[in-house]
Structure formats: C-alpha cells, structure tokens
C-alpha cells in the first residue's frame, strides 16, 4: 500500500511544529483524597488537563519500563522498526530503584503504538516500500498527538509494550492465527501479540461445564475483562426454566445462570482501570423465560428500594424501642416490660405495624436487658455503587431483547406469540404479542433496560449470512456480527477536520484510509481469548472505524442537531467514511487477498455494498433484500455538497474494486460511544451524541475547575454573524461575570454593611470563577471559621450543618440571591440571552435542559432521526442513548422503538430521566417553589396528601431546618382547642395540642362521613405534621407550604369565625392554625376580634401582620400565668398587645431534621429523630449537594466508581467519567 505525506513532511519529525509542555496530573476523590498523582508528565500544549489526566492515569504504563534499552536486530525488518528490550548491562550500573519505572511522556505512548502498528504492518506486507512505512509511522503519530483520532482503550493498554520495552509475561490462555502459516497457535507470551480488540461477541452452548458451555463462558469473559475489553452473548440457546434435562430432572432456567455470570462480572474491573466489566446479555423474544428476563432489572430495582426503605425503617423503629426503654422513669427492672412501660408498648406496636420482624423486636429487648442502649442497624442508600445495588443481580450488564419483524407484526395485529422450548422447539407458552411488547416498554420506562435489537434489520445488512445469522452484539450494541468474533475500534474527531470555516474533506479521507489500514494490521498482530474467536476473527477480519464529536461539529457550523441540514451532513460524512473504508479494504484485498469467508459470501456482500451505494445516490427505490428501506442521503439539505460528491465517488470505487478483488474485511465501520478516548481527544461530544451542557468546568493543572463556555458556542455565534461585543455579552450571560462587583441583589457594598472586610471580599472573589452557585462560596471554608463565628455571630452548630445557608442567615432574600447568582455564575444556558435571535436558539439545544432556568432540550425523535441518517452507511450499528424526559409515558417508549424500526435503525436504547433509583431527577432539581401547587394539581385525588407530604419533606424540612436537639415531648395533660367547620359541605374537625408555653405541638384531623382511605390519609398526615412540630419544624414553614393548595373538597367554609373560603382541606387547616398561633391575620377573611360597624381599615398596612417582636423585658408574669390556664390557639393570641411575649423566628426555634428515609424520598416513611446530627446524616446531605451540583452541571448525578467524582455523562449506551476517564463501555 502506498502512503502519502499529508500532515507531516518527508525528512521531518512527526512532532515538528507540535509544542509539548510539562504538567502534573492529579485526580482526587470528592473528599480530597488522591486517587492518582503523577508529576512532570509531557503532553502536547494544546491538550486539556482532563486529556492529560486520562492518558497519564489510564494509558501510561506504570511499571516495567526499562531506564536503558537496546535494539534487537531482526532480519528483513528496517532498522527504524527494530524492537527494543532492556539493556541489562547498562541497567546494572544504575541504582536498583532507578532501573525500571513507568512512562512519563505522551510521546512514548504515541511512539509505541505507531511503531508496533508499522512493525506488524511491515511484517504483513502492508506497505509497498520502506518509505511508505516511514510515512505511515509519522502520519499516525501526528494524528495521535493532534487528537485527530484515537484507537480503543485496549490498544493504549497493550499495544507496543513488548515492541518498545521488551515487556512480557506468561501466556494467559490466548490464541492467534499465524499470518504466514495460517495455522492456529496457542500464545506463549502475554504481550508479543497484544490484545487490541475492545469488542467481542461470544457464544454459549446449553452445557454446564464443557468447553463452550456456561461455566466456560465466565472464564472467557474474565480473560477479556482483565485486558479492558467488553463482551456480549445471546443466551437464548439455554433451556428455559422447567425444561427437561437428560438425567431426568428439570432445568433451573436461563435466569439462574445469568445471575451467576452477573456476579462474576461484577467482581472484575477491566484491567483494574474501568468502572465495571462491560457486558451485554441478549435474549430472543421467543425464549420461554423472556418475560422474566424483560422484568429482571425492574424487580432488582424494587429490591434496592426495599432494602433502602426497610433498612432505614428498621434502624428508626428499633432505636425507638431503645428510646422508650431509656426514657422509663420507673423501677429499672420494669423498663423492658411492655406491660408496665406504656411507651415501650407503643414503640413495639409501632414497629409491628411497619412489619418489623418480631425476632428483631425481641432481640432489641434482649440487648437492652444486657445493658445496650442503642443499635447500629446497617442502612443502605440508592447510590449506583452502593451496597444495596451490589447486593442485587443484573447490575453488571446491558440487557437487550432480540425482536423480529414477525413479532412486531404480531404486535400490530394483536396476535398470539409462541414461546418455544430450546431443545425440541415445541411451544412452551402462548402469550399475546402486545402484552409482551407492553412489558418491554414498561421495563425500559422503569429502569432503562432492556434495549431493543431488530434482528431482521440487522441480518438484512449481513455481509456473511452463509456462515450463520447475527445473533449478538458487544456491550454498547455498535458491533454486530457472528458469534465468537471480535472487533477493534478507532474513532476520528470530526471537529479537528473543521478548519477556517470549512470541513477538510481530503484530510478526512486520508485519515480514514490510514486508520482502516491500522485496524486491519491490528487483526494480524492480535491474540484472542479463545480458539474459536481467534479463528473466526482471522477469517472475517471485522473492523470498527467510526467518528466522534458530530454534535460539536454541527454547533461550530451553526447547524442544529435537530435539523435537516444537520442530519444530511451527518449522513454524508458517514457515507464518505464507510465508502473510503471499503474502498481501502478492496485495495488491501488486491494486494493481500480478500478475507477467507468472502468467496462463499461474495454475492451477499456485494448486494449489501450496492444497497449502501444506492443510499449514497439518494435513491428511494432499487434496494435488494431489505424489508425496511434505509434513509437515503439528503443531498438537497446537505450544506457541504463536496462531501456528498466525494462520498458517492468513494462508493462507486468501493463497489467496482470490491467486485474485482473482493474485500479484505467483512465489516469496516461502526459508531462507538468513544468514552475514554473521547476525553483523550478533547471531544465536546461523544460518538453521534449531541452535547450534554453548554457550560463546562475545565480542570486546572493545579487542582480545581474553571468555568468555560462550550468551545463550540463562540464559533457558532461567529458563524451566525454576531459581532464580537454581542458574542461577549451572550457568553457572559451563560457563564457569568465571575464577580460580585456591581452585581444586583448582593454586592460588595451590601456585604461591607454586614461586616465583611477587604480580606473576606478577596476570598469570595477568588472562589467565584469556578462556582455555579454563589451559596457554595459563602461558607466557613472560604471565609474562615473565626470570621463566621466572631464577626457574623454564627454558632458552630450551624456552621457544621451542611444545609445551612449563610446568605439567608444574613437576611438576603431568595430573589436577591437569584439575581446575584445569575450575574455572577451565569444562567448556564443561552435561553434568554441578550442579542440571540429566536431562530438561532435551537442550534444550542442539548440532550438535557441546561442550567436552572433552561427548558429546551432535544426531542426523542431528533435522536432517532440522526441515528437513521447515519445507519444507512454503517457496516455495524450505532451506540447511542435516546434521552427521554421524566414525564414520558410508557407508550412513548414503545413509539420510539417502533419509529426506530421503521427508519432502519438496528438497535435502540432509551434512558428516561430519573428511571434509575440512583439518579435524581434533572427536572426536579430545577423546580421552583411555586411548582408545589402544580404538582398537587396533577396528582390523582387519592394521592394529594401523600404528594404534599413528600413535597414538604423536600422543600421545607430538608432544605430549611436542621436538628439541634431531641424531640420535645408534649406534657401528659395539655391545652388545645377543637374547631369544627364545614369545607365545601364536608365536616372537618381540627384538634390541637399545645406545650406549656402555648406553642403548637400536635394536631388531629378527622372528617365526618368520608371514605376510610381519605380519613386514614388525613390522620396519618396529621401525625407526620405533629412529629415534625415536635422536632422543631417551624409552623411558619408548614403554613407557607400548604396554604393556597387546591384540591377537592374545597369551597365555602361554615362554622369558622375567621376563615370563610378555602381552596382545599389543607388550605383551611393551615389558615386556621396560622391565624390562631402565628397571628397571620393576612390569611383571615374576617379579623379574629370580630367586626363592628365602626371598624376602620389599616390603610397601607392592610393585610400585613399586625404584631412586631418585642424584647424579652416586655414580658410580664401575668401573661405567663394566663398561658398556663388557657389555650393560645383558642384565644387566637388575643392577649393585650403590651403584655405579649413573642416566640422567636426560625432561628430561635428548636431545629430538626428528618430521618434519612424521607430525606431520600422513601414513600410511606415516618418522621424520626436521632440523638445527634450523625456523620452519616451529614454525609448524605453533602451527597445530595454533590448530586445537585452534578445535575446542574449537566452530569448524570451518579458518583464514578473509580474516582468518586460526580462527573458521569451518558456515553452511547454506557456512561463515562469526565474526571478520570473511566467508562462502563468497552472503548
């Protein structure tokens, strides 16, 4: 093969003109502990800190690199390609600790990759001359250094280690086919033949222990995971539950074995580097156990919910029993006797009501008798990597069902569907196809699994059907081919081919050609985890070239992701890439011969090639062997006609050359998620995905982050014709000004008035650049503990409280904080930006709403249509997540699947926001307080009280109040009053209970002649409010939350002297309580003292509170005496004004917090207390803040399993960490 110089020049080095710099790499956990640290590493100066971190942590070889090397002469190999090995004589002269180390420069990595490819390419006769080999070597190194393209992670891990450093080790059970003798060989070395393949499809037979069977598969999977690869398997050959065994017994079924494999995969981290083993599990829709498979993860997530709620309820209720025993003030021996200790009896009864096992109740009593005073019952949370998720099954794989056209037709016809036994093919069960399809939709809606693979669509584009059907895929669903084959991936960064306002098509063609050769060479040099994979990978030589950053490219060009022009350009670029790849494959076949399986499949492969070419010609007809026609190239809407013409020419050449010489590879292209390698290339967007946020947080070399606009935004604005000043204002709106100087709401002058000095203002200013909310800057860590305590007078207990809001403490209102926040931190969206025209806003739409106020996001169909535009020109498939909003219905999930099928998409994975327990809703995090009423209105009638209870937990208790002491008990004989009234014709009885000082401590609500369910709900609601009051939740907070809520019954109020109309029962109750205990006459329709003919209005003060706070000295002993014998609520606080002693505001109230049951949103839980603000409570509050920050930044809200940072983003069907580069996929 001839190779030309395009990026480099003859007689010049590959790195000439590329500036390299020395930096440090450090990745920390959120708690500050160091995950990884390496200093004095060398990377190109243009690389971001994240890219430097990823190559240093993930791809630098950490050990075994000799300090002194010598070349090993090899006959027939050019001198510049001689491999190296340790120079033992030279090493002996060095101190022992300096003889071996790790890689410290990106040049070392680029060199070993490119040298190894060139070395094996020379041995395999891929280059016409030594000059061509040298040109290839330099061009590849240049592209790696300039982030133009990158191979999949296993290449970085393994390729070139033996060639560059002589690193080796014992065989790990791998095989390869010797390219000279064409014989299968068992490897004797771990690294001489590297394992560069990321994607594997493995078969499994219905056999327990023999080779190729179930237990053998776990062994083969482990071998792959160790080297950083991913694997997928179709398990439909396994017998269903209850099928006969040869020995006379019954099979335990598919699911029992899947759970074993899931547990095995969960124990292995890929090469010790990625988050978890990457694995795909597939089941056909006619398998007897398919229903259980579809609902597998739904049920497992239900188990997690049960573990979380149950464990916390156990801890709460069992400690309530201890509390009852501790509180006993009688004879000590009777403390543990529920017959004598009434409080203990109530605690036991309460525990039994929520199904706490009697065994545990009895155990607590036994502990107490032995002197124990509390129990530490382990509680679980919903974190993705938590013990709760680790405990259940199904969490270590992506699941997919294989759907045929016949099944989908049966769904349309509402026909029966037969589930078939695996051994004899007889019918095991008959179900309705529609019912089965609905289960798929519900499962995807509920937990984002299973995905869908369209079996007939996949196989209609199959180039080698003579060797069997395509039944499986890799974990991310982009590689689909025969069982027991492998694919190595590489992706090109499209944005780096966009220069000076135009796409460099010739550069793109050149890169495509060289990377196709690279991936083909990788097949020759590779070793494989089993004999069959080695044999079939050699026979079919499948490749996986793709691209990344299509979203970034479109935005740079001023094109919307959801536009005809954007889709047309995507289709054209994909057509050009695959056309050139197959053309190159045909050229290699001319020199080296076609792949071994080509001859028997040539008719089919040429049919597929012609179908691709037909689509590139924009033809709507003329396709052969396709039940679903592809989306043809949209030449009319494509903004780059040159790419279209080049693509058509490439397909013409590919078909002509292929017909004459055959093809070297059965497949050449896929679109992978490009997780970790996307970070190495500094891609804004991965694979075919759109962007996830417009404002990014750029990591700094010295630690910390700096907020920047997505690099595509200013380029897009410039392309659209905005002036420099307009661009600056728009970006300032999104990113913020980074300073409080002249800020609205809160600024330096205001802070000076609160005691802030120049030193404190400088500290604040220095922290604002990276902030996305100013509240996270105003804390003791920024300002210093002495200043907060001494100058601001904040008690230590508040400083340690993770929910304490310093700005609110200083008296700033929500409106002031929001105004200042937007000025300083920016809106993090372009919605509402100055100068931005309405017709341009869609260009900046992302997968999710941006910032707090962003409302726009890409539609479900926009993702599917983009996939369809590219799928017509891809050999394999596309790994992509189709984002759906939380309010999407199950029917919408099914509609998305059906649309994908109708457009010729091969596979589909949905992710509905919030469908995972571990991930907070993106929508909920940007919700305003006013949305409480809306949430109530939308709730079913029977759930309104529950909705309100959950909302008050989220909006009042968790955010507004923290706990400083134990529950304040009411006196045994207590004051209060009963108020009877009729609301909308329904009788309501409200009874209150008061503390000795007249403060409200409990309420009872009963309704006459209402249904038992509604009465019980109101009764339980009253109990929850009462317990909250006793833990110090201010009545004001309840009043603010529940007044003006609307639901039936509502209407005119009879029998109350002050409230004459109510929008709901709760509106009436909290109006009554506010008037009686808080003197909120603004909520009364008639003033409590009653009206007289000569009453005067209050002028400007009308409707405002008619009391003011007095000093403690204004209290009089007579008032205290009056309070002891009368109900404050009954008197409606109408004692003489000059005698009244006012209770303090929120700051002086007893503070409280909820148990973590309600804090985590567990429904049906009861408010509880613990003796101290325990570290676990603080940690969970901080975790909530971390998740909140992550969601506001556009991340998923989950912590990374490697580094712990909350910087995970959706990446195809997988997730990747933007801090350390870990990925749950295989690229």
Report what the structure shows.
The chain is α+β, with helices and mostly antiparallel strands. The strands form 10 sheets. Strands 7, 10, 11, 12, 13, 16, 17, 20, 23 and 24 form a 10-stranded mixed β-sheet that branches. It has a 5-stranded antiparallel β-sheet with strand order 27-26-25-28-29. It has a two-stranded antiparallel ribbon with strand order 1-2. The chain is globular. Residues 270-275, 920-965, 1090-1099, 1101-1119 and 1135-1184 have low confidence and may be disordered.
Annotation, overall tally of beta strands: 31
With helices defined by DSSP (H or I, 4 residues minimum), what is the helix count?
Answer: 43
Radius of gyration: 34 Å
Q: Sheet bearing the most strands, described?
A: 10 strands, mixed
Q: Which consecutive residue ranges, at least 5 long each, have pLDDT under 50?
A: 270-275, 920-965, 1090-1099, 1101-1119, 1135-1184
Range of strand content: 5-15%
Instruction: State the share of residues found in helices, binned by percent.
Output: 25-40%
Report the end-to-end length measured between terminal Cα atoms: 28 Å
Principal-axes shape call: globular
What is the structural class? alpha+beta
Question: What is the average of the pLDDT values?
Answer: 83
Write the layout of secondary structure elements.
Layout: E1 20-28, E2 34-44, H1 49-59, E3 65-66, E4 69-72, E5 83-86, H2 88-92, E6 100-101, H3 106-123, H4 130-145, E7 149-151, H5 153-158, H6 161-165, E8 175-177, E9 184-186, E10 199-201, H7 214-226, E11 230-234, H8 254-266, E12 279-284, H9 290-294, H10 296-326, H11 342-353, H12 358-369, H13 387-391, E13 398-403, H14 405-413, E14 416-420, E15 427-432, H15 433-447, E16 451-454, H16 455-460, E17 485-493, E18 498-499, E19 502-503, H17 505-525, H18 531-540, E20 543-548, H19 550-556, H20 564-592, H21 598-616, H22 641-661, H23 676-680, E21 695-699, E22 705-709, H24 712-719, H25 724-735, H26 748-753, H27 758-768, H28 780-783, H29 785-791, H30 796-799, H31 806-809, H32 814-825, H33 860-871, E23 881-884, H34 890-902, E24 907-912, H35 922-925, H36 931-938, H37 944-960, E25 978-983, E26 986-994, E27 1000-1007, H38 1012-1030, H39 1035-1042, E28 1051-1054, E29 1061-1062, H40 1065-1078, H41 1117-1125, H42 1156-1159, H43 1175-1193, E30 1208-1211, E31 1214-1217
Parallel strand pairs: 10-11, 11-12, 12-13, 13-16, 17-20, 23-24
Antiparallel strand pairs: 1-2, 3-6, 4-5, 7-17, 8-9, 10-17, 14-15, 16-24, 18-19, 21-22, 25-26, 25-28, 26-27, 28-29, 30-31
């Amino acid at each position: 093969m001839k190779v030309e110089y395009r990026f480099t020049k003859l007689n010049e080095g590959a790195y000439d003109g590329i500036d390299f710099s020395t930096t440090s790499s450090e990745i920390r956990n959120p708690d500050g502990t160091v995950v990884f640290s390496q200093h004095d590493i060398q990377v190109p100066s243009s690389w971001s800190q994240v890219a430097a971190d990823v190559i240093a942590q993930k791809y630098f070889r950490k050990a075994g690199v000799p300090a002194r090397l010598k070349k090993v002469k090899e006959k027939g190999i050019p001198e510049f390609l001689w491999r190296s090995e340790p120079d033992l004589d030279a090493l002996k002269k060095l101190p022992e600790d300096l003889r071996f180390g790790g890689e410290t420069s990106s040049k070392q990595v680029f060199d070993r990759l490119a040298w190894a490819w060139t070395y094996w390419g020379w041995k395999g006769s891929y280059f016409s001359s030594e000059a061509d080999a040298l040109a290839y070597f330099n061009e590849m190194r240049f592209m790696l250094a300039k982030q133009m393209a990158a191979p999949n992670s296993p290449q970085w891990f393994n390729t070139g280690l033996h060639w560059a450093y002589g690193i080796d080790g014992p065989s790990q059970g791998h095989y390869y086919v010797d390219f000279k003798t064409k014989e299968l060989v068992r490897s004797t070395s771990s690294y001489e033949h590297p394992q560069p393949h990321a994607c594997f499809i493995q078969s499994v037979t219905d056999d327990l222990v023999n080779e190729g069977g179930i237990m053998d598969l776990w062994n083969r999977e482990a071998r792959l995971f160790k080297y950083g690869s991913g694997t997928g398997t179709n398990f439909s050959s396994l017998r269903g539950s209850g099928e006969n065994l040869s020995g006379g017994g019954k099979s335990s079924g598919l699911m029992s074995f899947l759970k074993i494999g899931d547990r095995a995969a969960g124990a292995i981290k890929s090469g010790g580097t990625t988050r978890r083993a990457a694995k795909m599990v597939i089941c056909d829709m006619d398998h007897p156990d398919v229903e259980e498979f579809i609902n597998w993860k739904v049920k497992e997530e239900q188990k997690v919910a049960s573990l979380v709620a149950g464990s916390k309820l156990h801890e709460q209720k069992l400690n309530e029993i201890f509390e009852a025993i501790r509180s006993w003030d009688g004879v000590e021996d009777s403390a543990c006797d529920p017959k004598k200790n009434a409080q203990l009896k109530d605690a036991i009864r309460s525990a039994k009501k929520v199904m706490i096992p009697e065994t545990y109740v009895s155990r607590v009593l036994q502990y107490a008798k032995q002197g124990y005073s509390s129990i530490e019952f382990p509680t679980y949370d919903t974190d993705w990597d938590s013990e709760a998720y680790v405990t259940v099954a199904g969490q270590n794989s992506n699941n997919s069902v294989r759907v045929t056209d016949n099944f989908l037709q049966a769904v349309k016809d509402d026909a029966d569907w037969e589930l078939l036994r695996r051994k004899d093919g007889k019918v095991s069960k008959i179900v309705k196809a529609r019912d089965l399809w609905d289960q798929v939709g519900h499962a995807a809606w509920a937990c984002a699994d299973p995905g869908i693979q369209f079996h007939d669509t996949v196989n209609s584009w199959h180039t080698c059907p003579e060797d069997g059907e395509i039944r499986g895929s890799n974990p991310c669903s982009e590689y689909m081919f025969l069982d027991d084959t492998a694919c190595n991936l590489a992706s090109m960064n499209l944005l780096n081919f966009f220069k000076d306002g135009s796409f460099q098509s010739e550069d793109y063609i050149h890169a495509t050609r060289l990377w196709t050769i690279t991936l083909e060479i990788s097949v020759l040099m590779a070793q494989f985890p089993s004999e069959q994979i080695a044999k079939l990978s050699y026979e079919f030589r499948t490749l996986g070239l793709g691209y990344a950053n299509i979203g970034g490219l479109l935005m740079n060009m001023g094109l919307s992701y959801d536009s005809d022009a954007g889709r047309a350009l995507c289709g054209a670029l994909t057509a050009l890439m695959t056309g050139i790849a197959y053309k190159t494959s045909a050229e290699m076949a001319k020199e080296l011969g076609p792949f071994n399986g080509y001859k028997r499949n040539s008719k089919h492969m040429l049919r597929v090639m012609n179908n691709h070419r037909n689509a590139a010609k924009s033809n709507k007809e003329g396709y052969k062997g396709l039940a679903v026609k592809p989306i043809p190239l949209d030449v009319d809407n494509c903004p780059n006609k040159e790419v279209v013409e080049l693509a058509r020419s490439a397909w013409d050449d590919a078909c002509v050359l292929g017909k004459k010489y055959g093809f070297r590879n059965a497949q050449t292209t896929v679109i992978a998620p490009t997780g970790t390698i996307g970070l190495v290339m500094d891609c804004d967007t991965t694979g075919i995905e759109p962007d996830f946020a417009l404002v990014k947080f750029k990591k700094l070399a010295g630690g910390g982050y700096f907020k920047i606009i997505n690099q595509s935004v200013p380029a897009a604005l410039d392309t659209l014709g905005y002036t420099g000043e307009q661009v600056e204002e728009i970006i300032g709106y999104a990113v913020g000004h980074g300073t409080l100087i002249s800020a609205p709401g809160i600024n330096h002058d205001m802070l000076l008035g609160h005691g802030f000095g120049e030193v404190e203002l400088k500290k604040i200013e220095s922290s604002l650049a990276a902030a996305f909310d100013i509240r996270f800057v105003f804390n003791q860590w920024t300002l210093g503990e002495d200043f907060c305590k001494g100058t601001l007078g904040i008690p230590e207990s508040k400083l340690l409280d993770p929910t304490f809001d310093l700005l609110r403490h200083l008296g700033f209102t929500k409106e002031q904080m929001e105004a200042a926040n937007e000025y300083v931190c920016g809106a993090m969206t372009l919605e509402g930006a100055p100068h931005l025209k309405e017709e341009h806003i869609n260009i900046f739409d992302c997968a999710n709403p941006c910032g707090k106020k962003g409302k726009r996001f890409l539609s479900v169909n926009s993702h599917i249509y983009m996939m369809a535009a590219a799928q017509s020109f891809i050999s394999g498939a596309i790994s992509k997540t189709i984002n759906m909003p939380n309010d999407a219905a199950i029917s919408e999930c099914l509609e998305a699947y059906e649309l994908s099928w109708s457009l010729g998409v091969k596979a589909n994975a949905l992710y509905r926001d919030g469908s995972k327990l571990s991930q907070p809703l993106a929508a909920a995090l940007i919700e305003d307080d006013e949305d409480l009423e809306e949430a109530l209105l939308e709730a079913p009638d029977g759930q309104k009280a529950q909705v309100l209870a959950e909302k008050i937990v989220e909006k009042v208790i968790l955010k507004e109040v923290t706990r400083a002491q134990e529950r304040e008990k009411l006196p045994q004989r207590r004051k209060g009053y009963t108020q009877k009234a009729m609301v909308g014709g329904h009788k309501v009885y409200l009874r209150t209970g008061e503390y000795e000082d007249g403060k409200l401590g409990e309420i009872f609500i009963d309704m006459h002649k209402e249904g038992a369910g509604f009465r019980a709900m109101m009764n339980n609601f009253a109990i929850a409010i009462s317990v909250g009051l006793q833990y110090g939740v201010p009545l004001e907070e309840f009043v603010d939350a529940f007044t003006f809520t609307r639901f039936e019954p509502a209407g005119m109020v009879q029998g109350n002297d002050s409230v004459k109309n109510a929008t709901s029962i709760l509106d009436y109750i909290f109006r009554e309580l506010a008037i009686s205990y808080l003197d909120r006459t603004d909520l009364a329709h008639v003033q409590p003292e009653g009206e007289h003919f000569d009453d005067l209005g209050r002028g400007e003060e009308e409707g405002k509170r008619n009391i003011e706070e007095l000093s403690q000295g204004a209290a009089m002993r007579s008032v205290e005496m009056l309070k002891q014998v009368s109900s404050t609520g009954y008197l409606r606080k109408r004692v003489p004004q000059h005698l009244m002693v006012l209770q303090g505001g929120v700051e002086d109230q007893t503070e409280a917090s909820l148990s973590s049951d309600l804090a985590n949103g567990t429904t049906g839980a009861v408010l509880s207390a613990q003796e101290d603000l325990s570290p676990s409570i603080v940690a969970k509050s901080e975790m909530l803040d971390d998740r909140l920050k992550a969601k506001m930044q556009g991340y998923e809200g989950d912590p990374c399993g490697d580094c712990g940072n909350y910087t995970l983003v959706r990446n195809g069907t997988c997730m990747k960490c933007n801090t350390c580069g870990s990925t749950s996929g295989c690229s």
